[in-house]
Design goal:
Layout (H helix, E strand, L loop, with lengths): L2 E5 L2 E3 L5 E8 L7 E7 L6 E6 L5 E3 L7 E6 L4 E6 L8 E9 L2 E4 L3 E5 L2
Parallel strand pairs: 2-11
Antiparallel strand pairs: 1-3, 3-8, 4-5, 4-9, 5-6, 7-8, 9-10, 9-11
């Protein structure tokens, strides 16, 4: 059974940093593409960053060089390092894995950026 478990969310002040983790099990971790998405209250879920099995990354325009997605195949974990956080980054962040027609989501972790 595929399981994605996010962690690392919390309350941070504007300008601060957080690192989110997504621990995966039940999959061939080195395969597929991992994505980080977020959903703020009253808004649709949107892509934040994505990393392929080959390590290619892409980011949403609003990231503007502040976030970095990475994967550690030895630890079956994907990370999202978020720097220079802004109040508008407040959202539930979700880990997503996709391989062919199969897709799975984690339960999400809440990030709140506030002073």
């Amino acid at each position: 059974q595929v399981q994605l478990v996010e962690s690392g969310g919390g309350l941070v002040q504007p300008g601060g940093s957080l690192r989110l983790s997504c621990a995966a099990s039940g999959i061939i971790f080195s395969s597929g593409t991992f994505g980080w998405y977020r959903q703020a209250p009253g808004r649709e879920r949107e892509l934040v960053a994505r990393i392929t099995s080959g390590g290619t990354t892409n980011y949403a325009d609003f990231v503007q060089g502040r976030f970095t997605v990475s994967r550690d195949n030895a630890k079956n974990t994907v990370y999202l390092q978020m720097n220079s956080l802004r109040p508008e980054d407040t959202a539930v962040y979700y880990c997503n894995w996709r391989a062919g027609y199969v897709e799975r989501w984690g339960q999400g972790t809440l990030v709140t950026v506030s002073s």
